[in-house]
Amino acid sequence: MTGATEKQVENPILVKRLISICAVAMCVACILWNVEAPTRLGFAILSQQYMAFQLGLALTMAYLSVIKPTGFSDVFNLANGIVVFIVFAVLMYAAWDFSWLLTEQSYRPWQITLVGTVVVLAVMEGVRRRVGWMLFTIVSVFLFYALIADKIPGRLIGKELSPVRLMQYVGFDPSAVFSAPLAVGTMIVLLFVFFGQLLFAAGGGAFFTDLAMAAAGRSRGGSAKIAVFGSALFGSISGSAVSNVVTTGVVTIPLMERGGYSKKNAGAIEAVASTGGQLTPPIMGAAAFLMAEFLEVSYVTVAAAALIPAFLFYVSVFTQVDLIAGRDHITAAEDDSLSVREVMAAGWQFCIPFGLLLFALFWWRLDPEDSALLASIAIVVVGFTKGYRGKRLSLKALGDVFVDTGRGMVDLILVVAAAGFVIGVLNITGLGFALTLVLVDAVGSNVVLLLLISALICTVLGMGMPTSGVYVLLAALVAPSLVKAGIQPMAAHLFILYFGMMSMITPPVALAAFAAATITKENPLSTGIAAMRIGWAAFIIPFIFVATPAILLDGSWLEIAQATVLSVVGIFGVTAGIVGFCSKQLSSLSRGGLFIFGFFSLPLGFFPSADIVHWPAALIVLLMAVTFFFSHRKSIQSDQ
Predict the structure, then answer these.
(1) For residue 388, what are the β-bridge partners?
(2) For 207-260, what is the HEC assignment?
(3) Contact at 8 Å (CB) between 292 and 183?
(4) Does residue 189 fall inside a structural domain?
(5) Residue 2 resides in a domain
(6) Which burial class, exposed, middle or buried, applies to 521 when counting CB atoms under 10 A from its CB (0-12, 13-18, 19+)?
(7) Residues 545 and 591 in one domain
(8) CB-side exposure of 30: number of CA atoms within 13 Å?
(9) How far is 213 from 227, CA to CA, in rounded Å?
(10) Owning domain of residue 262
């Protein structure tokens, strides 16, 4: 997740222990819930009771984490201590008595007002402290709108709401804060975060890095290919592009700089590769599970649809780093890395939990949470049995995994709870339907214009926000208007996810690029601009799969193959034109030709007769590439 906006402080020992207890309780509760322990023991517990319990723990940890070691004589600490007590007590009461509160909701008892008010105020302040001002401001605007909705002129007019009724609804109702986003976060995502933490505690992080170095390190520009490959592996199970950058970037960025890449390009490559991990199955930064919930389809359907777009994204990045290496005469990385065979021989055990996860998801068709639980058990078994590079799972490390997982979930739970407020406002005021009508009517039947406007909105709203928050917000605000315009629901939701994620590398608030710049000590703005250039394909791929659903595996195998081939050729042509290299340095005319014909190769079938252009353009790109290759080869032979 994004870093806290307030300065992190060293907590006193008692507070650390309380945070650890809450973190462990959060993980244990999630595991018990997913193995249906309450039902097996004869207890009937509502899902909202479970969510209230987890939200209470998350808020408690959020406020405990800012207590300073100066003790409770400090006014700030005292205020935080009082807030912690109130929040914990109120949420635990809600968890205990939610069934009665739900039956009495139509009578609006004071208890619901208390729960709703505490939840709204505590979550909003927690979001401001932990996630940042961007999400806080966006949610505040929606809450303020709800209070004045009946006074808004035109189509955006909404239902009249008093402050008390608003707090009761958004802070308590199962259609608001205790809705699908919080359920997915606390029931599914938490287990996958636990799975990832277990994997890295057992040495999986080092294994991924070594595998990336072994697979790509000996090729031209190998240091950058290591970064791309490693970040894709790490990012596909990581919950944050920024954490991906700071985790893998401390290794890959210095490696790229030593290999010959400029500081600007090294930081940009790591930022783009780390952001792409959030778009890559199996986990996609938790967005896949949220998307499945919104679309009411299986997780497997979402992961399958996202596969080819993610492949195209990394084809583009790999092509660009390779061509930059050729242009700038960057050689392979240091040649002291292990071979793929040696890495696999030492870390083969990590294939077992990964294989079990994929088998459970795609073959047994188990629920994602059950699959994650099985894979986590497999990691515990192999982690205790076999180590990697001297790192082996131990009881202490296992305990730390519980603590780290719980602490790492705090920001995400706050984000999805705040997103629940927005969903609640859209539901109770009717704003969701009104926004869809306004946006669709504004562009008429012009789907391309609607997509361009939506892309801009998604990029702006996504700035400074973590993956899950970006997606939930955009799924509620933008996706309905795309579906209303006739775009397939899967394509619409992946479209908003892609452009929401592109805010990570798009200035002025390019969090992933700025995080990489702190490692390279390069100008953050120039790193962000370089990241946009290197990640250019991510800005066009969403338009491709909206125009050509075969990219989302929606079509015959022939259609899927044709669309994929055209996309790969087009991406190569445009990338070569951008870099200015294709086997040799290119003239301006050659660069322009590759760029133009590469663009027309892309299956962007928005316009009549567009299909008849793609294959001739693709053949011209391939012919130019072959010509440049043999021309370069001939010049080398003549020099010898």
Answers:
(1) 391
(2) HHHHHHHHHHCCCCCHHHHHHHHHHHHHHCCCCCHHHHHHHHHHHHHHHHHHHC
(3) no
(4) yes
(5) no
(6) exposed
(7) no
(8) 32
(9) 8
(10) 185-420+429-554
Question: Over the stretch 230-289, which tens digit does the pLDDT of each residue have?
Answer: 777 776 666 567 777 877 787 788 888 887 888 999 999 999 998 888 888 876 766 778
Q: Is the dihedral of CA 547, 549, 555, 561 positive or negative?
A: positive
**3-state DSSP call for residue 503?**
coil
Residue 359 shares a structural domain with residue 453: yes
Q: Is the pLDDT assigned to residue 9 strictly greater than 60?
A: no
Q: Give the tokens for residue 426.
A: 């859209």
Distance of alpha carbon 76 from alpha carbon 68, whole angstroms: 8
The alpha carbon dihedral of 489, 495, 498, 502 has a sign of: negative
Question: In the beta sheet, which residues pair with residue 391?
Answer: 388
Cα 256 to Cα 273: distance, rounded to the nearest angstrom: 13
Q: How many domains does the chain have?
A: 3
Q: State the CB neighbour count (10 A cutoff) for residue 636.
A: 10
In a domain, 4, yes or no: no
d(CA 228, CA 456): 27
DSSP for 43-71, please give it: ----HHHHHHHHHHHHHHHHHHTT--TT-
Tell if the pTM clears 0.85, that is, is over it: no
Measured CA distances, 209 to 228, 307, 490 (Å): 11, 22, 33
Structure-block tokens of residue 91: 């949420």
Cβ contact 253:431 at 8 Å = no
Q: How far, CA to CA in Å, does 452 sit from each of 447, 456, 575?
A: 9, 6, 22
Give the amino acid at 213: M
At residue 396, the 3 state secondary structure works out as helix
- Measured from the Cβ of residue 474, the count of other Cβ atoms closer than 10 Å reads 24
Identify the three-state secondary structure at position 391: strand
Residues 6+ apart with CB under 8 A from 224: 256, 259, 261, 265, 266, 269, 321, 324, 325, 330
**Contact indicator for 93, 114 with CB cutoff of 8 Å:** no
Report the distance separating Cα 215 and Cα 47, nearest Å: 45
Cα-flanking dihedrals φ and ψ of residue 35, to 5°? -95, 10
At 13, list the tokens. 């020992």
| N- to C-terminal Cα separation, the chain | 55
Q: Is residue 76 part of a domain?
A: yes
Q: What digits encode the pLDDT tens for the residues 163-176? A: 999 999 999 999 99
